[in-house]
Amino acid sequence: MELDGKVAIVTGAASGIGAALASGLASRGVRVVIGDLDEAGAHACAEAIRSGGGQAIGLRADASDVVDIEGMITLASREFDPVDIYIANAGIIGRPGLGTEQDWDTILDVNLRAHIRAARLLVPHWQSTGSGYFVSVASAAGLLTQLGAAGYAVSKHAVVGFAEWLAISYGDDGIGVSCVCPLGVETPLLQAVRSTDDPDARLGASSIEQSAAVLSANDVATATIEAMLADRFLVLPHAELLDMYRHKGGDYDRWISGMRRYQRALRAQSET
């Protein structure tokens, strides 16, 4: 895929992986619309890109709201050109444990339905032009699981499934899809989980940090952009995740038993 001159929307891009992706794309000549609930952060990210010679505009946008998604698409077309790339990056960890009905509605809206709603709006146009690129930022939790947080684990599994479906259904129409599945990344989301008082949430943070090295957001952005250029579906910034995933698929019962042991060990650590 050629990036220079393209137009991209990146959600959740005021900080973390989203901001790194927006900056990385802009450095390759992509004109970027930065959406985030943090309006000041979105504008600051766009200003930093413009200061470096790139083209970007920021706005407050709820990535799960159809009206806001339409607003980002309209803004991109008005300020730049029709959208070529959509990066569904915004995500939340959600409530620990099983959560309530409202908790599930919230996390599925942000972590899954946001991707579906954006695809509904963009795919028909991309089909008509024979090109377009959709990036779903999922998580290693979408291939493995997330200790302590059912909503996060399930929603990220669903994101991987939806991205797979997009790639299969529309690849012959010229639409590329990448699904990003990192383990631990130094972002505000991880920092928030670290600082919580909830034992299930702390368990999740420990499992993330002890499973592999915690990467920077720039590391994940670099791996993602390289995958886009190569039109590669699965993006694994942590190379060891592939072996973990193969181990899970090779013997599911053994993997579940191992995860139980791992969970017990982490709980024992927290009590000492």
From TrEMBL:
Protein name stated in the entry: Dehydrogenase
GO molecular function: oxidoreductase activity
Cited PANTHER family: 3-OXOACYL-(ACYL-CARRIER-PROTEIN) REDUCTASE (AFU_ORTHOLOGUE AFUA_6G11210) (PTHR43180), SHORT-CHAIN DEHYDROGENASE_REDUCTASE FAMILY PROTEIN (PTHR43180:SF66)
Annotated family: Belongs to the short-chain dehydrogenases/reductases (SDR) family.
InterPro entries (alphabetical): NAD(P)-bd_dom_sf, Sc_DH/Rdtase_CS, SDR_fam
UniProt keyword Phosphoprotein present: no
A Pfam family this chain is assigned to: adh_short
CDD domains: SDR_c
Keywords (A to Z) from UniProt: Oxidoreductase
